[in-house]
Design brief:
The chain has 558 residues and is an all-alpha fold. The protein has helices spanning 24-38, 48-57, 62-74, 80-89, 91-96, 104-113, 117-126, 136-143, 147-159, 174-182, 191-216, 230-254, 257-273, 277-294, 297-313, 317-333, 337-353, 357-374, 377-393, 397-414, 417-433, 437-454, 457-473, 477-494, 497-513, 517-533, 537-551; strands at residues 134-135, 164-166, 169-171.
């Protein structure tokens, strides 16, 4: 005997055979066969792409596919693309589709009717949850019960095939989620649902703040005991990343100003570290606008500064300057000297990016002095480091080394190993600019060792580009070429196009220095493209000049 059920059959003697969602090609085949049964001459069976879109909207669920086939059969003038457009607009539209005798909505209603009341309530509450999944802990907060209590209900939903769970996280299929969301009342949600969503948003914000404090904590600094250490906080952020980002977007749609402004702040350092600049920029813009809407000038200024830092990271320095100037204006009006110093430091870094070094030096010296007066050693170190970069670019090498050494000393004192390693990279760049290649290599080696100790492989590899520059300066071209080949390969895999452009530029220069223009030219051509695409016009022009020289080489080796 074969029996089918949405519930899991557990009685003795039953052998369970789970039927999963149909893959794309099989789902399309179901639609095609159903259309042919209704009309052997139905030419919509050839609308392959449209039928594939319908199948995706149905998530491979056999009943949904049958219902959609019936809808097409009842409307011979409707194309598969037209139906797909309707379905893709909203999961709830799939739920409402029917052929007069059956609908997905009715199936879900029957499943819900068999649930215990508290489990049925949890199903509705899960329709409020942002993101692709939810942890057991967050589900408990949402339901306002203990974790053991919510776990029992989640397992009951799993038995009914309404959720699936793995490693403490639970997710619903898009169609199930659409049904669950339809139970919450939309804009007219009952007060208990509003309170539940508020609890969940507050939980995400407070836990993200605790995680942030663990991640940014200086050596020996006390942190919230929510997480055992920085690694545990980072693991939580990794697991909740998509949920937290979606929470901000949902909060924006709902006008939840507190969540709109708080969560981007708490996610700032983590998302920068993960190099998720696209999401981070979106979140900071949301925070800026929410702060403006709420009249919170202090939070608006902070959000402008964070936005400026993201724009600097993506090499959009002119926009970054505008953001930092907005922050500076607000902090000045608020008579917040510390905030003003932070904005000046960011502005100086953006001026560096725009190669307006003399202006940057003036701004950064002022910022450094303000931090020194206020006793903020960490941010004074940041300003010193930016200052050292500006001084290097105007040829004031001794002052540059002094500024970097001051920053390095502060970072070492604070236990800021990653930042200290970055300063060693900058010191290597100054020494290499002076032609002190052996000393520069020693600085790069210190940085590389520190990055290795932190497990930051990307920075280890980036540092090798500087080392290779020194090897070329010491006429050790074979070693330089081997190092740069490895660097380029790694950066291609990591999708780090700007640093790939820098490495290819160095690789092209090294082949040219060896007299092999044929091998230099492809790397220089690619470097020009990458540096142009990643907003580095200065080095793009240098690479273009090197490319012209290589092409004009009288006797290239090939």
């Amino acid at each position: 005997m074969l029996a089918t059920s949405r519930d899991r059959l557990t009685s003795h003697g039953w052998r369970r055979v789970p039927i999963d969602h149909l893959p794309g090609d099989r789902a399309v085949r179901v639609l095609v066969e159903a259309l042919r049964v209704g009309d052997p001459d139905d030419d919509r069976v050839s609308e392959t792409e449209g039928l594939a879109r319908v199948a995706r909207a149905c998530a491979g669920l056999p009943l949904a596919l049958r219902v959609c086939a019936a809808v097409l059969a009842a409307a011979p003038d409707m194309t598969a693309d037209e139906l797909a457009d309707t379905l893709e607009a909203s999961a709830t539209r799939v739920l409402r589709l029917g052929d007069g005798s059956r609908s997905l909505h009715a199936v879900f209603e029957q499943s819900r009717a068999r649930l215990a009341p508290d489990t049925a309530e949890l199903l509705a509450l899960l329709g409020l949850a942002p993101g692709p999944d939810i942890s057991t802990a967050a589900a408990a907060v949402l339901a306002g019960v203990t974790e053991p209590e919510v776990l029992e209900r989640l397992r009951a939903l799993s038995v009914a095939h309404l959720v699936s769970g793995r490693e403490g996280r639970w997710r619903m299929h898009d169609l199930t989620a659409g049904y669950a969301a339809s139970l919450c009342g939309g804009d007219e949600a009952p007060e208990r649902f509003v309170r539940a969503r508020r609890r969940l948003f507050d939980h995400y914000a407070s836990t993200a703040d605790d995680a942030r404090l663990n991640i940014v904590a200086l050596s020996g600094q006390r942190t919230p005991d929510t997480f055992a250490d920085r690694a545990a906080a980072t693991r939580w952020m990794d697991a909740e990343r998509a949920v937290l980002i979606d929470t901000v977007h949902v909060a924006r749609e709902l006008g939840e100003t507190r969540t709109e402004t708080d969560l981007p702040l708490y996610l700032n350092t983590y998302l920068k570290w993960r190099r998720d600049f696209g999401d981070l920029e979106d979140l900071q813009w949301i925070a800026v606008r929410a702060s403006q809407r709420g009249g919170d000038e202090e939070r608006e200024a902070l959000s402008w500064d964070h936005l400026g830092a993201v724009l600097r990271a993506t090499r959009r320095f002119e926009e970054a300057m505008d953001a930092h100037v907005c922050a500076l204006r607000l902090y000045t009006e608020l008579e917040d000297q510390h905030g003003e110093a932070v904005s000046r430091s960011g502005l100086g870094a953006a001026l560096n990016g725009e190669r307006r070094f003399e202006e940057a030096i003036d701004v950064l010296r002022g910022s450094q002095a303000m931090f020194a007066r206020l006793g903020d050693v960490l941010r004074e170190a940041n300003a010193c480091n930016h200052l050292g970069e500006a001084l290097r670019e105007v040829g004031r090498y001794a002052e540059s080394v002094e500024a970097h050494q001051r920053a390095r000393g502060f970072y070492h004192q604070l236990g800021e190993v990653h930042r200290e390693a970055k300063v060693w990279v900058n010191l290597g760049a100054v020494l290499a600019r002076e032609g002190r290649f052996t000393e520069a290599m020693e600085a790069y080696e210190r940085a590389r060792t520190m990055f290795q100790g932190l497990g930051d492989t990307l920075e280890v590899v980036r540092t090798e580009t500087g080392t290779a520059t020194c090897l070329r300066g010491l006429h050790r071209t074979d070693e330089a070429l081997a190092a740069l080949d490895a660097v380029v390969g790694f950066l291609v895999e990591e999708r780090d196009p700007h640093h790939e452009g820098l490495a290819r530029y160095e690789l092209g220069l090294t082949w040219a220095a060896r007299g092999d223009a044929v091998r230099a030219i492809p790397h220089l051509e690619r470097a020009v493209e990458l540096l142009a695409e990643n907003n580095d016009p200065y080095l793009r022009d240098r690479a273009a000049e090197a490319l012209v020289s290589a092409r004009d080489s009288p006797d290239p080796v090939g």
